[in-house]
Amino acid sequence: MTTGVQGPSRAQIEERTLRTDRWWLSPLLTFIVFSVFVVYATIRAFMGSDYYASPYLSPFYSPCLGDCVSGASDFGQPFQWWPLSAALLILIFPLGFRLTCYYYRKAYYRAFWLSPPACAVAEPHGGYSGETRFPLILQNIHRYFWYAAVVVALILTYDVVLAFRDEHHEWGHMGLGTLLMLVNVVLIWLYTLSCHSCRHIVGGRLRHFSKHPVRYRLWTWVSKLNGQHPQYAWYSLFSVALVDLYIFLLANGTIDDVRFF
């Protein structure tokens, strides 16, 4: 029996698509950008070096809980015995949040799995099971990764506060690194708070908004942010990589920090 796009319940169209625009540009661009980020992030995560240039700590390594360089551990080193890079201890949480994100799922399903590659374009797969089977059924734990993402965002906010110190840990410093970290944490908060799960958490399971005015206001605010969720997803992806790259170049002595005061 024919399945997938050729199944009896689907439109019987032989052409892959009737679209005449360059529909393939969007999934191709997504594939390239995601691939570059994954390669870069993987290399940096396994390097285990050049992630701290006092007072800046790379977001890939925050909080630094393993065997970290002096000054990088603001919460101690409970996993000092960990033989691999300290980044591998904590990246699972922001990575899990992004991988299970509703927008990112749409983006990489189309770009990497061609499921489907674009609207009104037939997918090449013979069957479709959605997210009802392993491993995609694990996407349903996204809301739990959201809680972890909030904790990570709080820690990165704390890192920004510490970035207003100089290399001797004296307050009153501001450099380009401070500014980049500040912009990054704002974008991360916007991405986190505009999440669909956040919208459900603040306003879901309510029968009468009139009886919950505070939650209704929060739900309204998050709903406005939610409309820009894809943009915040991209902006925060770029910003976290840029901050890590800047700190990497500082730590290995390639550049000097631009200081404003």
Ends apart, CA distance between termini: 72 Å
Calculate Rg over CA atoms: 22 Å
Residues in helix, % = 40-55%
Total strands? 2
Shape: globular
**Helix tally?**
9
Transmembrane segments: 23-43, 81-104, 144-165, 171-191, 232-251
Protein name: Succinate dehydrogenase
Keywords: Membrane, Transmembrane, Transmembrane helix
SSE order and pairing:
Elements: H1 25-47, E1 52-53, E2 56-57, H2 87-90, H3 92-99, H4 102-112, H5 142-162, H6 176-193, H7 196-203, H8 213-226, H9 229-251
Antiparallel strand pairs: 1-2
Helix pairs in contact: 1-4, 3-5, 5-6, 6-9, 7-8
What is the gist of this entry?
It is built from nine helices and two strands. The chain is mainly α. The chain has one domain.
Textual characterization of the structure:
By secondary structure, the chain is mainly α. The protein has one domain. Helix content is 50%, strand content 2%. The protein contains 9 helices and 2 strands. A two-stranded antiparallel sheet has the order 1-2. A hairpin with a 2-residue loop joins strand 1 and strand 2. It is globular, with a radius of gyration of 22 Å. The mean pLDDT is 92.
List the keywords.
Succinate dehydrogenase, mainly alpha, transmembrane, two-stranded antiparallel sheet, 261 residues, single chain
